[in-house]
Amino acid sequence: MKKLTARILLTPAVGSLFLWMIVPLVMSIYFSVIRYNLMSPGEEEFIGLMNYHFFVTDPGFWPAVLNTFILIGAVIGITLVLGIALALLVNDKFPGQSLVRILLISPFFVMPAVNALLWKHMMMNPIYGVLAHVWHFFGLQPVNWLESFPLLSVIIMVSWQWLPFACLIFITSLQSMDREQLEAARMDGANYVQQFRYMYLPHLSRSVAVVIMIEMIFLLSVFAEIFTTTGGGPGFESTNIAFMIYVQGLMNFDVGVASAGGLFAVILANIASIFLIRIIGKNLEK
Amino acid sequence: MIKPLFWVRTAAAWIVALLIFFPIFWLGLTAFKTELQAISVPPHLFFTPTLENFVEVQERSDYLLYAKNSILTSVFSTLLGLLIAAPAAYAMAFFQTKRTKDLLVWMLSTKMMPAVGVLIPVYVVFQKYGLLDTKLGLTIIFTMSNLPIMVWMLYSYFKDIPREILEAARMDGASVFAEFRHVVLPLGVGGLASTALLCLVLSWNESFWSLNLSSANAGTLATLIASYSSPEGLFWAKLSAASLMAIAPIIVFGWFCQKQLVQGLTFGAVK
């Protein structure tokens, strides 16, 4: 009886997620082995693994794979280091603490499309942008960010958005720390580096794991920032796998190759998730 | 002795916070400038604010329609998500079996599937069933992409409800539904609220699916903003006004709910 009730309660969630996963997956597998271009209907035929071949030998493939890893790695690295530093900075009471926190977390609520346009036009524009003014102020030649450093520009935008997220979680975590223990360590003459190494860092380990997992999930499919700013270019310098599949499928109308790419992305994500979920699973059980 | 250090820290915290917030502040400022003021070098810091940009955004692209779509899709996807996720989380938290852990991990793994990986099939299915550029279609997508996170969050909240209370209710002969209604819901209401808040924020800001699956009919604010990325959209003051209107509601909302959001975002794992 109990079992039956539990099963009934679970069915909508399990069923809908199963459909959500299996239908696109099966369709992708099917599309990936046929010639299927929306611009030339009626020419569908089985071509085996050719689409995979086309996708992997596309000149944009390796740059896209590399860029995907660089983007994820850089943003996670930046947000972890700066996030912990900032959280420690605003942890103890000071005048205006709550206002500072509100300012700090705001970028997280900015939608990616706005984030991208904001940085592209108002911050990074080489003539009118705020950064150009700053460069002028120091007597330097302004940088054309999106043309000269496209990937770095995207990394800056995405980091600006996710730093508040990391920071917010670290702040919350620090608040649950045992004050008396910290005091005791200070009394015993532990310097700041020692406190950080033996008190703060171990305490934060769990939130570090959570931050890495969540950011990984969302950063694998960074799209709007690239779509609205660099369009993946110049060349393939800021194309990631997500954007590359989009170009194949919805701009070149080549559903076959795009599906092959999609499956590649799914496999990549699952390899990453196996490691992550293991780590997180262990962490959450404590 | 400690004092100087304290003030250095305070100043540092304020400076960093202002720097991080600066782009949003600048966006807000530009929204009230005329186009000419917006691109003047050096930038104007003091000027007479104008509301004409906001009026023009509404006239040119019907901001209110997009805003309505954003509100409807995010609210309904959140409600639908809760309706599906809450019973499942409840079942897993209170009728645990050996498979529960695997089921949870499997659910989260569907969230690891990158959206682009399934874009084409979803596009094709949506085309076939007339769901392209409809609010219903977007609502379904938002619900599905948030569902794994909702289940996880609710699960971690429900699990924290003391089992003794439930057992007492069962001893008193409460049915499963009475138990859910009178024990789990009241005690888990904080968790439900956090979950709902996070889903609202995520759906409101969702860009990938809205950009690819919606346009003039069901387009959300993300679609509207992206349409300004074309060369004709290069009116900075108007762009800023539109952007400000797109992010202001959810930023203010986020300020008020930050505490709940953290609990939600970390599946209650970080307290």
Write the layout of secondary structure elements.
The complex is a heterodimer of chains A (286) and B (271).
Chain A: H1 2-32, E1 34-35, E2 45-46, H2 50-57, H3 61-89, H4 97-105, H5 112-123, H6 130-137, H7 145-148, H8 150-175, H9 179-187, H10 192-219, H11 224-228, H12 241-251, H13 255-285
Antiparallel strand pairs in A: 1-2
Chain B: H1 3-31, H2 35-38, H3 52-61, H4 63-94, H5 100-112, H6 115-128, H7 135-159, H8 163-171, H9 176-205, H10 208-213, H11 221-227, H12 236-256, H13 258-265
Descriptive report:
The complex is a heterodimer of chains A (286) and B (271). By secondary structure, chain A is mainly α. Chain A has a single domain, classed as Orthogonal Bundle (MetI-like fold). Helices cover 74% and strands 1% of the residues of chain A. Chain A contains 13 helices and 2 strands; from the N terminus they run αββαααααααααααα. Chain A has helices at 2-32, 50-57, 61-89, 97-105, 112-123, 130-137, 145-148, 150-175, 179-187, 192-219, 224-228, 241-251, 255-285; strands at residues 34-35, 45-46. In chain A, strands 1-2 form a two-stranded antiparallel ribbon. In chain A, helix 2 (50-57) packs across helix 13 and helix 10 runs antiparallel to helix 13. The longest helix of chain A has 31 residues, at 2-32. Chain A is globular and about 80 Å long. In chain A, 44% of the residues are buried. The mean pLDDT of chain A is 84. Chain B is built from 13 helices and no strands. Chain B is 77% helix and 0% strand. Chain B is globular, with a radius of gyration of 23 Å. With 271 residues, chain B is mainly α. Chain B has helices spanning 3-31, 35-38, 52-61, 63-94, 100-112, 115-128, 135-159, 163-171, 176-205, 208-213, 221-227, 236-256, 258-265. The chains are: A mainly alpha (286), B mainly alpha (271). Chains A and B meet through helix 1, helix 4, helix 5, helix 8 and helix 10 of A and helix 1, helix 4, helix 5, helix 6 and helix 7 of B.
